[in-house]
Design a protein that fits this description.
Layout lengths: L10 H12 L10 E6 L7 H15 L4 E5 L7 H5 L10 H10 L6 H4 L3 E4 L2 E4 L13 H14 L2 E5 L7 H8 L3 E7 L2 H15 L21 H5 L2 E5 L12 H13 L4 E3 L4 H4 L11 H15 L9
Parallel strand pairs: 1-5, 1-6, 2-4, 2-5, 6-7, 7-8
Antiparallel strand pairs: 3-4
Length: 308
């Protein structure tokens, strides 16, 4: 990313990933490209994944990238990317309401009050609202995301843990790519397999009382699953991310097979584990490499422009 590093044996790998991220030419099609970040368990790095994926694409490619919390709960995405000294922007909820009403143009001059711009990345506030207000409707949310997709080229939505909720279903229905965030622990991988199998149309659970996935289990999201990117954080395992449990290895292999082979294991990074504002210059090289792999896998799924 932005910091200098001495020549090392891994430089060739970084250069290959740089090309994989920047080379695919995103087709200029109506509606742009929508990436959804999801995961059924809290604390597995969904916000970090959304933030670093969006930052990587925004800083390395020429398109306009937007990122947002697509939940009705209080999110932490903005404070991971925007300094606390910056004044608050207008809520994304209002943007969605105005988008549905048709009184907001898909132009950044009109949208400026709703976004923070950090290294070219457009960051939107959480959808959270006071308890006495109704949740944002799926129709409003879809209109808001559609507006962002017309204004830019790439939109990344963090839908949190409720992949079977109304907003999440609406986000998945408009998604072009799916990124799944989980961790290297039995319960997290078990829940991820349960969610993935439901999205693929063949619900599977090891639990006697599984979640209700009926809202998404009809098979209509099977194509998203077959090309999904799975991001595995170290979780409660050793800080080096190592694991000797054959059950976890089998679960990771299951995800590789079902999700098209794209499973990226991210190691522990003290800077990210602190949960504060992300500073790219403070990231370990291994972290930069891992998220470059994730961004390259997402870029490989872009609808490509025809060669001139």
């Amino acid at each position: 990313m932005s910091r200098r590093r001495e020549r090392s044996a891994r430089d060739d790998e970084f250069e290959e990933l740089e090309s994989a991220i920047t080379a695919p030419r995103l087709a200029n099609v109506p509606g742009s490209h929508h990436v959804v970040v999801a995961g059924p368990k809290g604390g597995t790095g969904k916000t970090t994944t959304a933030a670093l994926l969006a930052t990587t694409l925004a800083t390395r490619r020429g398109e306009i990238v937007s990122v947002l919390d697509a939940t009705n709960q209080i999110g932490t995405l903005r404070r991971r990317l925007v300094p606390s000294s910056e004044p608050p922007t207008r809520p994304f909820r209002e943007l969605c309401e105005r988008a549905l009403a048709g009184d907001l143009a898909p132009e950044w001059s009109a949208l400026a009050s709703y976004v923070d711009v950090v290294d070219g990345l457009r960051v939107l506030r959480s959808l959270s609202s006071p308890p006495d207000e109704e949740d944002l409707s799926p129709e409003e949310f879809v209109a808001g995301v559609a507006l962002l997709r017309r204004a830019g080229q790439i939109v990344i939505s963090d839908i949190g843990t409720k992949a079977n909720g109304p907003l999440a279903v609406a986000a998945l229905a408009s998604a072009n790519s799916l990124v799944l965030a989980t961790e290297l622990s039995y319960d997290a991988l078990e829940l991820t397999i349960e969610m993935v199998s439901a999205l693929a149309g063949q619900p599977l659970s090891y639990r006697p009382d599984p979640d209700d996935w009926s809202a998404v289990s009809g098979g209509r999201f099977a194509s998203l699953v077959s090309s999904a990117v799975v991001v595995v954080s170290p979780g409660r395992q050793r800080r080096d991310g190592a694991n000797d449990d054959p059950n976890l290895s089998m679960m990771l292999e299951w995800l590789r097979v079902v999700c098209g082979g794209n499973v990226v294991v991210v190691g522990h990074d003290d800077h990210l584990s602190a949960g504060h504002l992300i500073d790219l210059d403070q990231l370990d090289d291994d972290t930069i490499l891992a998220y470059s792999c994730i961004a390259a896998a997402v870029a490989a799924r872009f609808p490509l422009a025809e060669e001139q």
